[in-house]
Amino acid sequence: MMVVGGMCAVLHGSAQPLMLLVFGLLTDTFIEYDIELNELHDVRKECVNNTIQWKRNYTAAALKSRTCGLLDIEHEMTNFAFYYVGIAAAVFLLGYFQISLWVTAAARQIQLIRKMYFSKVMRMEIGWFDCTSVGELNTRMSDDINKINDAIADQVSIFLQRFTTFVCGFCIGFVKGWKLTLVIVAASPLIGLAAGLMAMFVARLTGLELQAYAKAGAIADEVLSSIRTVAAFGGEKKEVQRYDKNLISAQRLGIKKGLIMGFFTGYMWLIIFLCYGLGFWYGSSLVVDTEEYTPGTLLQVFFGVLIAAMNLGQASPCLEAFAAGRGAATTIFETIEREPEIDCLSEVGYKLDRVKGDIEFHNVTFHYPSRPEVKILDKLSVPVKSGETTAFVGPSGAGKSTAIQLIQRFYDPKEGMVTLDGHDIRGLNIQWLRSLIGIVEQEPVLFATTITENIRYGRPGVSKEDIIAATKEANAYNFIMDLPQKFDTLVGEGGGQMSGGQKQRIAIARALVRNPRLLLLDMATSALDNESEAIVQEALDKVRKGRTTISIAHRLSTIKNADVIVGFERGRAVEWGKHNELLERKGVYFTLVTLQSQGDEALNEKARQMADNEEEPARLNLSRAGSYRASLRASLRQRSRSQLSNLIPESSVPMVGELGPRAYSVSQNAIPEDEEEPVEPAPVTRILKYNLPEWPYMVFGSFGAAINGGVNPVYSLLFSQVLATFSVTDPVLQRKEIDGICLFFVMVGVVSFFTQMLQAYAFSKSGELLTRRLRRLGFQAMLGQEIGWFDDHKNSAGALTTRLATDASQVQGATGSQIGMIVNSLTNIGVAIIMSFFFSWKLTLLILCFLPFIALSGGFQAKMLTGFAKQDKQAMETAGQISGEALNNIRTIAGLGKERLFVDTYEAQLDAPYQAALKKAKVYGACYGFSQCVIFLTNSASYRFGGYLVQQEGLHFSLVFRVISAIVTSGTALGRASSYTPDYAKAKISAARFFKLLDRVPLISVYSDKGDKWENFEGNIEFIDCKFTYPTRPDIQVLNGLNVSVKPGQTLAFVGSSGCGKSTSVQLLEKFYDPDQGRVLIDGHDSTRVNVPFLRSKIGIVSQEPILFDCSIEENIKYGDNVRDISINEVISAAKKAQLHDFVMSLPEKYETNVGAQGSQLSRGQKQRIAIARAIIRDPKILLLDEATSALDTESEKVPSLCLRLCGSFSRGLRGNVTPLHVCVVSWQTVQGALDKAREGRTCIVIAHRLSTIQNSDIIAVMSRGFVIEKGSHDQLMALKGAYYKLVTTGAPIS
């Protein structure tokens, strides 16, 4: 296809030079006719026997013999008209084939590149993802591949066509008149050099600009995916600034690029006009003085070389597209050619016939590729026997999860090896190895599809019965059957529609359905409440019989009955044995157990003693503090989010607790329903309004563009004047006229140089400033939307980032350089038409009949393309969502061995855009062919009519040329303007989408100053009869008449099973949502009327899965308060309170250490402590703790859990240098006293699954199905002997 298309392009390219031959003959005919007329105007001459002679009474010197009366100008012109029509027909066909074949071929290749790129990315080892941001990969897949498409589609054939014209033009020049050609060619190196330099600079700047935008894109992606954290800490304005800062460098590069292009374009025009001057001056001397050429030959040679040069110039935008395409292709192909270190789709490696299940670590040393200086595992040696349950315990960051990732072969150890049944796992087939492993993680990732499909990811082709059996084993069956759509319920992006416990149970079912030989439980029951945990734990105990199981848990009671317990410390296994043996050893395990069981025992003890009402005060204190341990352990786990770097796409991570519903809509059919509401293209006036601050640039640019537009008609004036001189019979007058015209050419060139530069600089400046402004405004508008808006799957982080990137830059198509082009074309057409009517209105009218066709061909082409632009965008967005989900959850996909499935789904989504592209190719080809041949048809008609006017009405022939060349060049200007219409139309649609976003009035406005603010904020909170459903799932009632209040300085604890509405109530208080009915009162003010930023500034939150940003530890802590400047001393003091300081000081870069995307470089506990420090620095009046210490191991948790739990910065309480451990061991009373002081003046709301966490709260509210079933203090509720009493004593369900 490419060859045939290329051939057509070459033939098409030779059409224009071919026309020149016809044109030369035609000119000679006209000039001959004019000379004959001039001669016969002389009263002394007459025509006798077809030769001009003196009349009888004059006898002067002998006349040059000239024929007369033989030339029938009309007949000659008719012949020439037929030549033109013939050429036009050929051009149409060739144009059609050249474009449609190349565009089709490009569509095929792009399809292939997309497939190869995505499948290669999915094959990369996990370490590669640690070092590459997902936002950047998404940008590469959309923008960069589109750039390659631009480079290899129609551009190649147009380049070939222009290049052929260039070659043929020169051939004609040399064959017909080598002297003149050499003179003109002497100047061409100057043009060539400029074109080369321009291409080089532009390619370099484009590459740099792309990098800058990719960086900004990564920031946008990170922020939008963590929108709840940003909202809670009021970071919107700060994030907009951070994003804007990254746009500045891209803007500078864009302006520089514009200036460079303007300079070189102006320079080229200058050289071209100098060539005109020189060429006509020298050529005329060859015609007049030496008579070597006829005027026709002069034109053939001159225009041959000129058209050659022009086409070389027009080929330069193609080179720009090639350069941009090559720049983009470099990174794409680097990835495609990179061999993954661990290729998950490779067929090589052994598959063992019998798997016993013995795993052993032999002297394994390991560090993450993204942090080579920090050793995670240090000569780790641990055997795991087949069929046994081995538990890994130890503080956060000791390397437990890392060991599990090595078994899955996400990474390979740097030294040592991991073996399965004595075989190094590096020698085993990786897909087969992973198929043996079932993993249940602390934060399970679900995919945006139904529950059935999610479980089926565990094992393809599994039957419905097996799925049901697995859900029953995982204690998930009952809650699934309660849902309106049962197994067909959509879980939302990242499982956002499910509560934490529900997600966890679906994930367990997914692991069970695999029937794995090795079961890896990474805090598998962490997200479950008591009721579910007991049952799931039992299910897990059942399923691990006969399987090799490795369990990681912070809650030690869950692993007491493991066959072997391994204690980890600093990347080594320091001890192993059974529960009792290890207790005797008094090592790591002993310390952890003692701290934890103190709490558990105390709580149970207390419950037993309640009946007798005998409690020793010390006991009580102990129980209050210690039991913490236990409960915390619980929550301990879900909610933290580990080195498993980008495991969860942030958008789905509920900011607080087990956020009930989020993304995706209710039912399957709700998705396609209103995929993309049609948008009315935006009015240009509104786009320009955003460009208003740049009006001086636009005025100057338009001025430059107007002068540039006038250049073409002036040129046709001069050109026809040159022709007229050839029929002047007086040699002296002739020479004088020629010199004057040549001088004029030089002047036009100089003016053109400056105006081109002015136009390019002014418009690139205004365009780049607009793009940046729109990106910033768009981003700001996104961050200003209420949280419910992000729940809609159409507003997932990936889709929004793509929208920011493409829409903002496309809006430039309606302003900036486009305005320049339009002004340029309009002045060109205006001047040309006025001039033409002045010289010959009849001929002008005839040619104007063709002008609509010239314009129409351009407009038609634009119309077709915009239709496709919309389809393309939609189809690619669906594919983009799939790729986004896959890349965000790459670890889960790798663990399940589902890379191939995602690659196939992605490829299936590419089919629609591919079919659309094929359709587009044919239409585009036909339009192109038509637009190319219109000019030839115009010429044929107008020269024929011109002949008639010259003969019948005595019009001077030079005026025929003047009118035709003026209007035809202006027509091509119109065509050029209309070739920008696709951009223009794209721009209007993009702008409309953009304005829709900017015009949307959020239901809860972050940026408004309206709403109540008051001085002495106390933190008195009341929920009055609150009812609430999530906007994306209106059929599920989450809160059902919630009534509860908490006075300033009190601590309120919510208890209840997953999904009962605990976290939802916290989100209403944060004003992420407003209640559907009922009210939330803060200090007596209705929350719907309170100023949002004011309210959030008084609330500090530590959530279950802390979200950190890809910046330094210091900046993450400072994020706690975005209103003021925070000194490093405050940061350090907050870090000390959160027990973080010592760990930070042990890092090579201390507080400057980058935490990685989503905190991926830190362990869960480390992330949680940074989040705690972040809340402390905020110094809030209301503190929300959603399982805040969940990710701390027993040791780290001891104090912060309490300190923080009971109120944020235990700044006021614990002064002096008491070390946490010391406090713990010495006396619980002191801590309790300090904490009681610490919570003075603060209102605290705590959510916990573990009851021991909250038993010393002032009010405990037990929730079920969205309302409070009982509330009171721990003692009151125990005395009630209701749901809470049952929970504490037996762990029975709350219902």
UniProtKB/TrEMBL annotation:
<dbReference type="InterPro" id="IPR011527">
    <property type="entry name" value="ABC1_TM_dom"/>
</dbReference>
<feature type="transmembrane region" description="Helical">
    <location>
        <begin position="181"/>
        <end position="203"/>
    </location>
</feature>
<feature type="transmembrane region" description="Helical">
    <location>
        <begin position="695"/>
        <end position="718"/>
    </location>
</feature>
<feature type="transmembrane region" description="Helical">
    <location>
        <begin position="259"/>
        <end position="281"/>
    </location>
</feature>
<feature type="transmembrane region" description="Helical">
    <location>
        <begin position="293"/>
        <end position="312"/>
    </location>
</feature>
<feature type="transmembrane region" description="Helical">
    <location>
        <begin position="819"/>
        <end position="839"/>
    </location>
</feature>
<dbReference type="GO" id="GO:0005886">
    <property type="term" value="C:plasma membrane"/>
</dbReference>
<comment type="function">
    <text>Catalyzes the transport of the major hydrophobic bile salts, such as taurine and glycine-conjugated cholic acid across the canalicular membrane of hepatocytes in an ATP-dependent manner, therefore participates in hepatic bile acid homeostasis and consequently to lipid homeostasis through regulation of biliary lipid secretion in a bile salts dependent manner. Transports taurine-conjugated bile salts more rapidly than glycine-conjugated bile salts.</text>
</comment>
<feature type="domain" description="ABC transporter">
    <location>
        <begin position="359"/>
        <end position="595"/>
    </location>
</feature>
<dbReference type="Pfam" id="PF00005">
    <property type="entry name" value="ABC_tran"/>
</dbReference>
<feature type="transmembrane region" description="Helical">
    <location>
        <begin position="81"/>
        <end position="107"/>
    </location>
</feature>
<keyword id="KW-0325">Glycoprotein</keyword>
<feature type="domain" description="ABC transmembrane type-1">
    <location>
        <begin position="3"/>
        <end position="324"/>
    </location>
</feature>
<dbReference type="InterPro" id="IPR017871">
    <property type="entry name" value="ABC_transporter-like_CS"/>
</dbReference>
<comment type="similarity">
    <text>Belongs to the ABC transporter superfamily. ABCB family. Multidrug resistance exporter (TC 3.A.1.201) subfamily.</text>
</comment>
<dbReference type="InterPro" id="IPR003593">
    <property type="entry name" value="AAA+_ATPase"/>
</dbReference>
<keyword id="KW-1278">Translocase</keyword>
<dbReference type="GO" id="GO:0016887">
    <property type="term" value="F:ATP hydrolysis activity"/>
</dbReference>
<feature type="transmembrane region" description="Helical">
    <location>
        <begin position="738"/>
        <end position="763"/>
    </location>
</feature>
<dbReference type="GO" id="GO:0090374">
    <property type="term" value="P:oligopeptide export from mitochondrion"/>
</dbReference>
<dbReference type="GO" id="GO:0005743">
    <property type="term" value="C:mitochondrial inner membrane"/>
</dbReference>
<keyword id="KW-1133">Transmembrane helix</keyword>
<dbReference type="Pfam" id="PF00664">
    <property type="entry name" value="ABC_membrane"/>
</dbReference>
<feature type="signal peptide">
    <location>
        <begin position="1"/>
        <end position="15"/>
    </location>
</feature>
<keyword id="KW-0472">Membrane</keyword>
<protein>
    <recommendedName>
        <fullName>Bile salt export pump</fullName>
    </recommendedName>
</protein>
<keyword id="KW-1003">Cell membrane</keyword>
<feature type="domain" description="ABC transmembrane type-1">
    <location>
        <begin position="699"/>
        <end position="986"/>
    </location>
</feature>
<keyword id="KW-0967">Endosome</keyword>
<comment type="subunit">
    <text>Interacts with HAX1. Interacts with the adapter protein complex 2 (AP-2) throught AP2A2 or AP2A1; this interaction regulates cell membrane expression of ABCB11 through its internalization in a clathrin-dependent manner and its subsequent degradation.</text>
</comment>
<dbReference type="InterPro" id="IPR036640">
    <property type="entry name" value="ABC1_TM_sf"/>
</dbReference>
<feature type="domain" description="ABC transporter">
    <location>
        <begin position="1021"/>
        <end position="1290"/>
    </location>
</feature>
<keyword id="KW-0732">Signal</keyword>
<dbReference type="InterPro" id="IPR027417">
    <property type="entry name" value="P-loop_NTPase"/>
</dbReference>
<dbReference type="InterPro" id="IPR003439">
    <property type="entry name" value="ABC_transporter-like_ATP-bd"/>
</dbReference>
<keyword id="KW-0812">Transmembrane</keyword>
<keyword id="KW-0813">Transport</keyword>
<feature type="transmembrane region" description="Helical">
    <location>
        <begin position="845"/>
        <end position="866"/>
    </location>
</feature>
<keyword id="KW-0832">Ubl conjugation</keyword>
<dbReference type="GO" id="GO:0015421">
    <property type="term" value="F:ABC-type oligopeptide transporter activity"/>
</dbReference>
<dbReference type="InterPro" id="IPR039421">
    <property type="entry name" value="Type_1_exporter"/>
</dbReference>
<keyword id="KW-0067">ATP-binding</keyword>
